[in-house]
Amino acid sequence: MATKKPLNNIISFLLRLTLSFGLLAWIFSKIDMEHTWSVIQSADVGYMLWAGVVFFFINILILLRWDILVRALKLDMPFWTIAKWFFIGLFCNLFLPTSVGGDVVKTIGLSRQAKQKPKVFASVVLDRLCGFAGIVIVAAVMFVVGYRQIPDRAVGLSIIAMTLFSLTITAVLFSHRIYSFCCRLFDRWPKFKKSIMDVHYDIVLMKGKVSRGIAAILLSCVAQVLAAYACYVVAKALHQDVDFFYFLIFSPLVCVATALPSIGGLGVREMGWVYLLSKVGVAQGVAVGISLINFLFMVLVGLIGGGMYVVTFFDRRVQRDQTDPGVRLQKP
After folding, report:
1. In this structure, is residue 9 part of a structural domain?
2. Which residues are registered as beta bridge partners of 97?
3. How many domains is the chain built from?
4. Which candidate, 64, 267, 266, 228, places its Cα nearest to that of 135?
5. Crossing angle of helices 190-204 and 176-183, rounded to 10°
6. For 158-195, what is each residue's pLDDT tens digit?
């Protein structure tokens, strides 16, 4: 059984790797690479730099959102520690399966220092829920405001489906009766059932802290609008005349799509932008360029977390070596 689990993990990783690079290979086989490269080479550097600044600021907002939720759950952790694991999570998102792989890393990392794993896990779940709420709110508002401008019926149906799914998840997590009913599925595993019930109790603690929940959701909405704006600025840098409205509609859908099994959302993200932007007259190659440039910004911000991970790992290694009974410090 012990050898079977690593094997399953390897197979799962290889399948996600195959999906990501298979989609990328298929997309690149369909686009005019020469035209795409010439468009990227002619990009406006000023717009590109501004898009990078906006992208970095988005991540600061998301960090502040997680910090609000950590404080709301009475986890007494220094802001620097929260920031460290946040950026390490971003770094791990670059190569772990799906865009939520880094959540596992930051949950484990912060739990080791906070010693309250259910609350840390609840803060990460709430953070994702607030992020998803921001996605749904922005998409739903833009759908109501400009549904006549939406170029594809499937886009509108996707937004409606997201909204219904969001309301269902909220009802399950915040209703003790519904949550308990769903947890009956895990009666055979009492320890696991207790763990997920503990998470529910910690999430319910937010019921008495509505102002902090609203603040976290508002930050999510602002971050989502800025994410759409960053893509819009990149499109402007590539000399594409596309109304900002479409990015406000398309960006939330692409964000949700990157949660599908893949490596850091690669392939899935590009496929989404190609499909959606082609509906408003953007060439497939240019759409891929917009997506990959935004991925480059993700890599650059993620490298901050990579540096923090190296420093953290080095510090732990030094501390372990110093506490090793086999090590003797010589007196000068």
Report:
1. no
2. 263
3. 1
4. 228
5. 160
6. 888 888 887 777 777 666 677 677 667 666 767 666 66
- Determine which of 21-35, 252-266, 297-311 has the lowest per-residue pLDDT on average: 21-35
User: Which has the closest alpha carbon to 95: 31, 23, 13, 173?
Assistant: 13
Domain assignment of residue 141, yes or no: yes
What whole-number distance in Å separates Cα of residue 15 and Cα of residue 327?
A: 44
Residue with tokens 């990579």: 306
Give the DSSP letter string of 62-96: HHHHHHHHHHHTT----HHHHHHHHHHHHHHHTTS
Q: Does the residue 328 lie in any domain?
A: no
Q: Within the chain, where are the H helices? A: 4-30, 33-41, 45-72, 79-93, 101-114, 117-146, 153-174, 176-183, 190-204, 210-237, 244-257, 268-277, 284-323
The boundaries of the domain holding residue 179 are: 15-309
Determine the Cα–Cα distance for residues 121 and 108; give it in Å rounded to an integer.
9
Residue 21 within a domain: yes
Higher pLDDT, 118 or 24: 118
Q: Is the pLDDT reported for residue 289 higher than 70?
A: yes
As a whole number, mean pLDDT of residues 241-258 equals 89
Entry pTM: 0.79
**Residue 266 has which token pair?**
């690669």
The residue-averaged pLDDT of 30-46 equals: 80
Rounded CA separation 72/58 (Å): 21
Report residue 189: phi and psi, to 5°: -120, 75
What is the tens place of the pLDDT at every residue in 91-106?
Answer: 888 776 555 667 888 8
